[in-house]
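Example S7 (C-alpha cells).
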C-alpha cells in the first residue's frame, strides 16, 4: 500500500536537494577559472556560469598570423569551459550524492 510517511520524507529530501542545488548555482558566479594557450600568449578567465570575464592577448600573439591567433583564442576558451563544466559537475555530484551519475545537465 501507499505509505504517506515515506512520501513526506522523500518530498522533504527533494526540497533540501533543490535548495542545495540553487545554492551551488548561485555560488558558480563567484568561481573563476583561468586557462591559457600558446604558452601563455592567450589567457582567458571565466566564471562558473561559463561567462567570459577576461580575455588577454599578449603583444607577441598579435604578431602571429590571423588563423593561428584565432586557434589560440578558441583553445584557451575551450579549456576554460571544460574546466568550468568539470567543476560544476563535481559540485552537483556532491549535492546529489552522485544520484545523477554521469548525467550532464545543460546550463548547470
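Recovered sequence:
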Amino acid at each position: 500500500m501507499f505509505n504517506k510517511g515515506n512520501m513526506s520524507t522523500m518530498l522533504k529530501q527533494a526540497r533540501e536537494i533543490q535548495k542545495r542545488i540553487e545554492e551551488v548555482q548561485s555560488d558558480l558566479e563567484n568561481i573563476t577559472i583561468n586557462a591559457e594557450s600558446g604558452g601563455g600568449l592567450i589567457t582567458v578567465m571565466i566564471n562558473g556560469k561559463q561567462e567570459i570575464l577576461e580575455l588577454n592577448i599578449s603583444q607577441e600573439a598579435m604578431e602571429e598570423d590571423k588563423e593561428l591567433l584565432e586557434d589560440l583564442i578558441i583553445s584557451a576558451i575551450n579549456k576554460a569551459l571544460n574546466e568550468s563544466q568539470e567543476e560544476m559537475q563535481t559540485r552537483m555530484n556532491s549535492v546529489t550524492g552522485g544520484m545523477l551519475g554521469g548525467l550532464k545537465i545543460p546550463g548547470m
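Notes on this example. DSSP finds three helices and three strands in the chain.
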